[in-house]
Design a protein that fits this description.
A five-stranded mixed sheet has the order 1-10-9-7-8, with helices on both faces. A five-stranded parallel sheet has the order 3-2-4-5-6, sandwiched between helices. Helix 8 packs parallel to helix 13 (384-405), helix 9 packs across helix 13 and helix 14 crosses helix 15. The chain contains 15 helices and ten strands. The chain is 49% helix and 13% strand. Helix 6 links the parallel strand 5 and strand 6 (192-195). It folds into two domains: 3-37 and 237-405, Glucose-6-phosphate isomerase like protein, domain 1 (Rossmann fold), CATH 3.40.50; 55-223, Glucose-6-phosphate isomerase like protein, domain 1 (Rossmann fold), CATH 3.40.50.10490. The N and C termini lie far apart (59 Å). By secondary structure, the protein is α/β, with parallel strands linked by helices. The structure holds 5-phosphoarabinonic acid (PA5). Residues 80-83, 139-141, 144, 147, 201-203, 284, 412 line the site of 5-phosphoarabinonic acid (PA5).
Length: 446
């Protein structure tokens, strides 16, 4: 069991009777997920992914990763949202946020197409100058504007640098098996393609080729990652009374008692992108129909010096979920210094991780005193196995929570609104776009 829920810092915030009131709903949700009879049940492919995945494609991912490792200095991963966050989270968690700066025999990895900043794209192009490049373009729909623009830029670069045939050997497309412009383009150009299964939504897709190819290129053990997820599936799928259900119960109970914001906190900077992945998972899954717990994140103790004041004494509508990673593998200690001019002699010889743990305990107690309940999720270690386990834990808890909240946790209709406006303002052809454009321009000019 890689994750253990610790309720020490919830005392006085929720009673067992209050939790019991939510339990009936989570039990119903678990049953519905297992029976696949709830809303959005055509997107439940993630449940069995850790065991029921395409083994041939998995082998092809490993082979492609080796080819990429051997043929480039820079690997550019193009994608947005669920087509980018999981891979980046895994690489930063398992390897390091400083992965590109570390001594290694794998390529540097940069992420592109996750926004529309010309500055970001220009900077990356400058970094790529004179380097050998491979590209993985990832889009389930195959029609998303941000990655499509970045891919157009990189395709042009690679074709000019290596010729059509050479570029074809360096471009890998991960998309739908049959539909979308990316699929059409990949078929036309003859790129090696990987499939995003129909029944797996973007934010649940890290354990498909979407996440696995970049993660494998970074030199991570994707077998161990899948094993962690498979063990979590064994522990949680269809089961009541687990820590996964308990997390869903507690967060829903706190929400019913007026806590509208959940802050995911971790005391490790390598967790920053995992928190971003988690925010998308919970934000897109729960935020609809006027409902939802707003997912926020902090990295402590860093953010105690920026957001700490707000958490300690601001509006009391928040709770924290702290991921406490037990074994990071770090061994650096506070050096001894006889002169002790900085006054740190009292912690000389202690490991940074033990000082960090004291900071966590101190903060949890202070935040409880300030009226902020803390759910603690203890994760054994910084490893591929634990990352895979944690991914499944959060995905299952999110599905349970969504149903408990009374929403469909597998759609994201609201994401379309900005896209429709943007297409209209950019002058995309089509009667609907044109009508909207006139209306939007009138509002902007009014
Ligand atoms: O979870 C989701 O479905 C979204 O965040 C998508 O992953 C994101 O919009 C990117 O979509 P696509 O992979 O189709 O380009």
């Amino acid at each position: 069991m890689a994750i253990k829920l610790n309720e020490k810092y919830l005392k006085g915030f929720v009673t067992e009777a209050e939790l019991d009131e939510v339990k009936a709903d989570t039990a119903k949700a678990i049953k519905s997920i297992a029976a696949r009879d709830g809303e959005g049940n055509d997107y439940l492919g993630w449940i069995d992914l850790p065991v029921n995945y395409d083994k041939d494609e998995f082998a092809a991912i490993k082979k492609a990763a080796e080819k990429i490792k051997n043929s480039c200095d820079i690997f550019v991963v193009i994608g947005i949202g669920g087509s980018y966050l999981g891979a980046r989270a895994a690489i930063e968690f398992i390897k390091s946020p400083l992965y590109n700066n570390m001594k290694k025999d794998t390529p540097d990895i940069y992420f592109a197409g996750n926004g529309l900043s010309g500055t970001a794209l220009e900077e990356l192009l400058a970094i790529c100058e004179g380097k050998d490049i491979c590209v993985n373009v990832i889009s389930k729909s195959g029609t998303t504007t941000e990655p499509a623009i970045a891919f157009r830029v990189f395709r042009d670069l690679l074709e000019k640098k290596y010729g059509e045939q050479g570029a074809k050997e360096r471009i890998f497309a991960t998309t739908d098996k049959a539909k979308g412009s990316l699929k059409t383009l990949a078929t036309e150009k003859g790129y090696q393609t990987f499939v995003v299964p129909d029944d797996v939504g973007g934010r649940y897709s890290v354990l498909t080729a979407v996440g696995l190819l970049p993660i494998a290129v970074a030199g991570c053990d994707i077998d161990a990652l899948m094993k962690g997820a498979a063990d979590a599936r064994e522990a949680y799928n269809g089961k009541v009374g687990t820590d996964c259900e308990r997390y869903a119960i507690i967060r829903n109970c706190l929400h019913r008692k007026g806590k509208d914001i959940e802050i995911l906190a971790c005391y490790q900077s390598f967790f920053t992108m995992t928190a971003e992945w988690w925010k998308q998972l919970y934000g897109e899954s729960e935020g609809k129909d006027g409902k939802g717990i707003y997912p926020a994140s902090v990295i402590f103790s860093t953010d105690l010096h920026s957001m700490g004041q707000m958490i300690q004494e601001g509006k009391r509508n928040i709770f924290e979920t702290v991921v406490d990673i037990k074994n990071t593998g770090a061994s650096v200690t506070v050096p001894s210094d006889e002169a002790n001019l900085d006054g740190l002699g009292f912690i000389a010889g202690q490991s940074l991780d033990s000082v960090n743990f004291k900071a966590f305990q101190a903060t949890a107690l202070a935040h409880c005193d300030g009226g902020v309940p803390n759910i603690v999720l203890e994760l054994d270690e910084k490893s591929e196995y634990d990352f895979g386990y944690m991914v499944y834990f959060f995905e299952m808890a999110c599905a349970i929570s969504g149903y408990t909240l009374g929403v469909n946790p597998f759609n994201q209709p609201g994401v379309e609104s900005y896209k429709k406006n943007m297409y209209a303002l950019l002058g995309k052809p089509g009667a609907e776009n044109e009508a909207r454009r006139a209306e939007l321009l009138a509002r902007l000019e009014g």
